[in-house]
Amino acid sequence: MKKYILLIILFCGFTAQAQYGYGNSRQRQQLPQVQEKAADPDFPIEKYLGIVNYDIKKSAKKTSIKLSSKEGKEFSKILTTYNKEIKDITRINSFLIRSTKDMVDNFQKAAITSGDFSNQQKVQKKMAENLKPIFLILKEADVKLYSKMKDLLSDKQYKKWLKYNKKRHTFLKKED
What's the pLDDT at 137? Predict the structure, then answer.
């Protein structure tokens, strides 16, 4: 009988603590909800264009090439030349790239604040029109790089090279 009474008292005690918290039942203060400011839009125009600057050591590792070998030195030379060519293209067209990025960022900022996305097609068309010549030049440089790599690398290494670059280039996905 004493055991039952003890169990009932313990059970009631745990239930009361769970319901009322024994002094821990402070009312939560309702803080005014502060709306967080959304981050400013940052359109990744380099990614959109497919601008890639290769890390030679990482590229060699991913394609199983030893940089100390003759083939590795040629590989390094090709990538260094490509990186310089891409930097020159972006430097020459930096004003157009920056102005297009600013145009898209400003549109996104205005659209977020006002909720009006009616000019989106105009902005996309203008952006495509501005960037098409740069995109074609970059694609030509990439095709040249890939033809040099195909001549230099074995079939197995070339497949690894393509796999390494698949995420970076949109035109590769269409050709395969």
Answer: 93
Amino acid, res. 150: K
How many Cα atoms are found within 13 Å in the side-chain-facing hemisphere of 75?
26
CA separation for the pair 75, 59 (Å, rounded): 9
- Long-range contact pairs involving 31-39 (C-beta distance under 8 Å, separation at least 24): 38/112
The pLDDT score that the predictor gives to residue 49 is 87
**Alpha helical stretches, state H, 21-67:** 45-49, 56-62
Degrees to nearest 5, angle at CA 49 with 138 and 143:
30
- Tokens describing residue 167: 């995420």
Percentage of the chain surpassing pLDDT 90?
Answer: 48
The Cβ-side half-sphere exposure at 35, using a 13 Å CA radius, reads 2
Evaluate if residue 57 carries a pLDDT over 60: yes
Q: How far apart are CA 116 and CA 123, in angstroms?
A: 13
Contacts of 57 (CB under 8 A, 6+ apart): 67
- Token readout for 133 is 């010549």
Q: How far apart are CA 107 and CA 101, in angstroms?
A: 10
